[in-house]
Write a structure and sequence with these properties.
mainly alpha; 4 helices; 40% helix; 0% strand; extended
C-alpha cells in the first residue's frame, strides 16, 4: 500500500504537458522541440563535447570570473542592447 501522503501529491506538470500532445503527429518539416524538462532529448553536438574535453582540465576555468562579467561578453551585450533599443549603452553599464 503506497504512503497516503505520496498518493495525495499533485500530478507532475511535465506529465500533464505530455498528455496534451499524446497521439499527435509532428512532420519532419515541423518537429516537436521537447523542452518540458528544460533539457534536450538528444546528445550535445560533438564539436561541443570535443571542446569541453580539451579545456576541462584548465585550472583557470575552476575559478570565479570577473565580478561584473567577462569584458567581451559585456561589450557584446551592450552593443546588442544599444541596437535593440536604439540607444547608447556603454559596456561599463552592463553587469552579467
Amino acid at each position: 500500500m503506497p504512503n497516503p501522503l505520496v498518493s495525495a501529491t499533485a500530478t507532475s506538470p511535465i506529465t500533464e504537458a505530455y498528455s496534451w500532445i499524446a497521439g499527435q503527429e509532428f512532420p519532419a518539416s515541423r518537429p516537436l522541440i521537447d523542452v518540458a524538462q528544460a533539457v534536450p532529448g538528444y546528445a550535445p553536438a560533438s564539436s561541443l563535447t570535443n571542446h569541453l574535453a580539451e579545456v576541462i582540465g584548465q585550472a583557470d576555468l575552476a575559478r570565479y570570473g570577473p565580478v561584473l562579467g567577462v569584458p567581451e561578453l559585456r561589450q557584446a551585450l551592450a552593443r546588442d542592447i544599444s541596437r535593440a533599443y536604439a540607444a547608447t549603452v556603454p559596456d561599463s553599464h552592463v553587469a552579467i
